[in-house]
Amino acid sequence: MAKGKKGFQPGNTVGKQFSATRQPEKSGRKPTLYKQLFKATAKRVEIELSKEDYYNILRYLMERTPSELRTIAKCEQTPIWVSNIISSIFTDTKAGKVSTLNILFDRLFGKPTQIIESEIGATISSKQEIDLSVLTTEELLIYNSFLDKISNQDKK
Fold first, then answer.
1. pTM exceeds 0.90
2. Which DSSP category does 124 fall into?
3. CB of 82 within 8 A of CB of 103?
4. From CA 10, how far away is CA 7, in angstroms rounded?
5. How much is the average pLDDT of 113-121?
6. 77 assigned to some structural domain
7. Which of 77, 95, 97, 84 is nearest to 58 (CA)?
8. Taken in order 38, 43, 44, 47, is the CA torsion positive or negative?
9. Among the residues of the chain, which ranges form H helices?
10. Domain range spanning residue 68?
11. Are 105 and 59 spatial neighbours (Cβ–Cβ below 8 Å)?
């Protein structure tokens, strides 16, 4: 395609246009990951664990001793994601870090709440006249208490 031109341009001689008789070799949509896995393994791909199961496994791993974790990681039947988490824990431990544990704690228990303190000041000025006749007696009393509070604050 010529430099600076986008898309198919009229008179383009590069390539051939598809027609009813000339179709691409691999027509249709790309197969999903599940279909690709089924084709490769001849096993049905289904979700076996719930979200709660994952959390329970993570909690279980975090409560094990290093020797228990090594035994779990060496087992051929252990899922790769479990082995990967165990490996990350050991790598962090050797380096004196706790980043994997922090991530797991955040995932299990949620991030700790952070208190944010701030002062908000607002000044409302309006050149419009306010029609107070639409307010009920109770609303007028509340409005009056707000005005008193504002005027008392200005005196400080």
1. no
2. -
3. no
4. 10
5. 77
6. yes
7. 84
8. negative
9. 33-41, 51-62, 66-74, 80-95, 99-109, 137-155
10. 51-109
11. no
| Contact assessment for residue 104 and residue 58, using Cβ atoms and an 8 Å cutoff | yes
Task: Find out whether 101 and 85 touch, Cβ atoms under 8 Å.
Answer: no
- Give the total number of structural domains in the chain: 1
The token pair at 138 is 């109770």
Q: Residue 114 corresponds to which tokens in the numbers above?
A: 């952070």
Q: Is residue 155 part of a domain?
A: no
CA distances from 77 to 51, 73, 147 (A): 20, 9, 72
**pLDDT-derived band at 114, boundaries 50, 70, 90:** confident
CA 83/CA 76 separation, integer angstroms: 10
Asked if 102 and 110 touch (Cβ cutoff 8 Å), the reply is: no
Tokens 């979700």 sit on residue? 47
Res 11 pLDDT > 90 = no
